[in-house]
């Protein structure tokens, strides 16, 4: 199967892993475990009835699994004194990221103009595709050169039910990764890890690029310089991302366009990212000016590769050294040689057998030769924990 054409979609389900994660994070402890079920109790038994316990089914394929889940959620409803719908929703979201695309307006919270709602959904789709494209390469304007993998990403994410108040479109993407440990005797499962990691990487790119755009058009009074916009492309900013925001702000009904991120509770949150960005209608003209400038940048700025360091080499007289990085490039497993300065070489050494890296630069591929890369940026990839 060609993964570039058929990316797996995320599923919102209540399974044994989701239940276990929710209970653990809610202050419950496993008191007993058998092959088909477990007994969980509150960790602070002094504050509650010591007889309170939950029967947690372990086999998701069992014929009575859904029945047992319903009983479990009913017991949690009594204990937590919250609606069962909210509890079920939180359980099934343990391993997914949610990007809330919002629009504030002057109407009652129970309604929203049809035309404006269509634009909001289009904005969400446009931003997902733009972030997916920037996850693969950095470019100011993709136009008709949007990678197929980026276009297909819009089919891999889900949209939750809209929420009242400021009209909200929740975009749901998976954050759970395969359980792959570092093994000195065998190469990493690059293909499995890369495919499963793309959703989280896309959301991180979206958060970074929107943070840059917010800084340029809202957080500061001065008009951004060409250099600042140029640097923003390195973080994922593009014409297509700007266009996603513009499409909604263009509607006179929409007073403010917002994007918020709810990171998967069971997966480590990426560090250093803003949770909410707000773009008032007053920022529209500045976004348009930035978009017009970005549309002139039609060449690839940088290739982005995600991988792991297999070999490091540095001589005593060297300033830095070279490494070999395993990565997926255009759907193929590649080994890429990179020459690093002393600072980046230290990062590569720190990542070795511990965590993946993200590298931006000029990638050179020639038939029959080892791939090489002129490195612009080399960093430990903290957005993908536990890989």
Describe what you observe in this structure.
The protein contains ten helices and 14 strands. The protein has helices at 16-25, 65-80, 84-92, 114-136, 148-156, 190-217, 226-234, 239-249, 284-294, 342-351, and strands spanning 28-33, 37-42, 54-57, 96-104, 137-138, 158-159, 167-174, 256-262, 276-280, 302-313, 321-329, 332-340, 357-364, 371-380. The chain is 35% helix and 25% strand. With 387 residues, the protein is an alpha+beta fold. It is globular and about 65 Å long.
- 3D shape: globular
β-strand percent reads 25-35%
Contiguous helical run count: 10
What oligomeric arrangement do these chains adopt? single chain
Proportion of helical residues: 25-40%
**What pattern of helices and strands is seen along the backbone?**
HEEEHHEHEHEEHHHEEHEEEHEE
Radius of gyration: 23 Å
Structural class: alpha+beta
Q: How would you state the average pLDDT, rounded?
A: 88
Low-confidence runs? 1-8
Number of strands: 14
